[in-house]
Amino acid sequence: MSLTISDVALATIICTYVFVFVALLSLLIHGYVCRRIKRRVSFADYSTFIAFILTLGIIGQITWAVIDEGQGQHMPDVTRSQLDLMGKSLLINEALWALVNTFIRLSAIWALTELFLIVSKYSFRVLMAISIMHGAAALLTAVLICHPIQAGWDTQVDGRCGNQIDAYVSLEACGLLIDTFILIIPVWPVLRLRSSIRKRVGILLILSAGAIVSITTGLRIAALHRVNSPDFSYDQGYLGLLSTLGALLGVISCCAPSIATFIYRWRAIRPCAINSELRVNGESAPQEMARRTQGTTLSRRPEVEVGTYDLDTEGCSDGDNSDGDKFLKT
Predict the structure, then answer these.
(1) 212: CB partners within 8 A, 6+ apart
(2) How far is CA 101 from CA 131, 136, 254, in A?
(3) N or C: which end of the chain has fewer CB within 10 A?
(4) C-alpha angle 139/144/150, rounded to 5°?
(5) How far is CA 253 from CA 30, 194, 205, 311, in A?
(6) CA distance readout (Å), 47 to 99, 110, 186, 206
(7) What residues have CB less than 8 Å from 111, skipping those under 6 apart?
(8) Rounded-to-integer distance, Cα 317 and Cα 164, Å
(9) What is the pLDDT along the chain (330 residues), one digit of tens a residue?
(10) How many of the other CB atoms lie within 10 Å of CB of 119?
(11) Are 65 and 291 contacting, i.e. CB atoms less than 8 angstroms apart?
């Protein structure tokens, strides 16, 4: 077992477990919104939780590769047996990555289907079928590209392998196209909402949270090109880092609408709760206390000044029923 790790290996471990905490917190909020606010759990929610479980598999594999297999170390510091194990790790990593992305895409597509019922469900079914076929193709490629499969990591096995890097890069590029199309879907329906530009932009930002995953996928394609470099073990460390970050950011982006709903409800309820504490029988709390202590009677009913107490009372009134608010409340 390696006792020292490089900078990229250390960054992989730190970033991975920081984002694991963020993803777990996002899932807890997502679960709360599903059970207490939406009061139902849909296929999109199950897909998100499955994607997180599979992501934990990637995290375990990458952590073991960094600690025991020398991933992220330079070639002179890696033994022959560790190189063989890294070849096996690459295959496992690609298979898990394909599964995680498939469930994240299915979750996003299903959620968009529920949000935008005016959009043709036929197109969503086709997009879901394409996502499933892409995931199956990526999984089969990882398993069948070498015959026998052991030839993918054991150079002493008599067998043959296809061009793994070209195959993986092609599949990643196709996946990036699918992700881009999913990001484009909600743009037109959101722009047609009868609400302010600020709210429409906010909704688009929430629904476009997956764009950061697309950026990670693009960086991962570049990292795949470096896997066959002379410093294979070090460059594969970047691939492992991007795999964990991409999977965790995908899970977080699926929870983004629930996080927005949770924050919206908290902001809507909290000012009203504070406001009720600051008012006593229609009078502000400081004035009520002064009346009780001094025995004076107020000639009018003073109001709580929003600027004085720095309260955001938006959400205390039921008067705003714009489409943007309906979106966040559902």
Answers:
(1) 249, 253
(2) 9, 11, 11
(3) N
(4) 115
(5) 11, 25, 11, 30
(6) 11, 9, 20, 19
(7) 42, 44, 254, 257
(8) 59
(9) 444 567 777 888 898 999 999 999 999 999 999 988 888 899 999 999 999 999 999 999 888 888 877 777 777 777 777 777 777 788 888 889 999 999 999 999 998 888 775 556 778 888 899 999 999 999 998 888 888 877 777 767 777 888 888 888 899 999 999 999 998 888 888 888 888 888 888 888 888 888 888 898 888 888 887 777 767 677 777 888 889 999 999 999 999 989 988 988 887 665 444 344 334 344 443 444 445 445 444 444 444 333 332 333 344 444 444 444 444 444
(10) 15
(11) no
* 310 Rama class: left (phi>0) / alpha (psi -120 to 50) / beta: left
Q: What values do phi and psi take at 279, rounded to 5?
A: -110, 135
Q: Hey, what amino acid is at 283?
A: E
pTM of the model: 0.76
Which amino acid does the sequence have at 108? Answer: A
Q: Dig out the tokens for 232 from the structure.
A: 């294979």
Residue with structure tokens 């570049």?
Answer: 222
Question: HEC states along 78-94?
Answer: CCHHHHHHHHHHHHHHH
